[in-house]
Amino acid sequence: MDTRRLRLLLELSRLGSMHAVSAEMGVTTSTVSQQIALLAKEAGTALIEPDGRRVRLTPAGRRLAEHAVTILAAVDAARLDLDPGAEPAGAVRVAGFATAVRRTLLPIVAELAAGHPRVRILIHEHEPFEAFALLATDDVDLALTYDYNLAPAAFDPSLEARPLWSVPWSLAVPAAVTVNEFAGFHGHDWIVNSRNTADEDVVRTVAALAGFEPRIVHRVDSLDLVQELIVAGLGVALLPADEPALPGVRLLPPADPEIRLRAYAVTRRGRSGWAPLALVLTRLGTPPRRPGTARRRPG
Question: Which of 50, 93, 115, 184 has the fewest CB atoms found within 10 Å of its own CB?
C-alpha cells in the first residue's frame, strides 16, 4: 500500500472531513478522494461510506487507520534512522488539564515552532476521564492527565503512561481561622471539584484518617473561584501548595499523609514511535517551568 495514501486515510480518521484533510495536507479535496479510492482498491474493501453530505470511515477503514499509525511510525523511524537530520512533520493533538498545558506544554510550543515548524500542536482542555475517552477513539494522540498519591489512577493496559512531575497540595482555609490541624475542620463545609472526583476521594480519605466524614457542600471547577469562596467563609478545600494564594486564604500542608498531585503523559501503546509525537514526548521530559496563576482545577 502507498504510505502517502495511508497518511491521507489517517488524517481523515483524525480530522473527520476530506476538506479538512485537503487543507491540512495542502492538496485538493478531489485528490484526497481519488487517493483514498485507490487505497480502497489496494486494500480490496470499502474504506469510506456516505454520512449525509460528508463521509465516514467504514469499520475496515477504521481498522486500516489504526494500522496506519503503526506503519507510518515505522516508516518515520526508518527515515530518521537513515537520515537523522530528517524533519518530523504532522499535527499532534493533545488533550490535557489546564495546569499541565500551562506548566509543561506551552513552554515547548514556541520552541517547537522555531525549531520544528512542520510539527503543529493542537490543544484541547479536558479532565483525565475525558482525555482517556478521546485516546480510546483516536481523537487525540496525547493525553496529559493526573492522579493523586492518595487516589491513584488505574491505567488501561492499552495505554502507556510516562510520569512528568508532581506537586504537593495543601488544605486552604480562611486566613482568620486559627485551627491548624486537619481534624479541626470536621465541622466545616468543604469545596471539591465539579468535573472530577479525584480530589473528593482524597478529601474523604484524609478526613477518614482524621476520624470524621467531610461535609461536601460546594462543587467548583475554577480554582480562582474556590479561593473566593474560601475568602467569603463558605468552606475549605485542597489547593496546590506551589501556587500563590489570594489574600485571605491560608495554606496548611497536611502533616501526614502528604498529598501530591502527579501528572502523566499518556499515549496509546505502540504510538509513541511516530516522529512528531516522539519529539513532543522528548520535550515534555525536560524539567517543567513554574506555572502561572491557576485558573481551573486541578491546579
Answer: 50
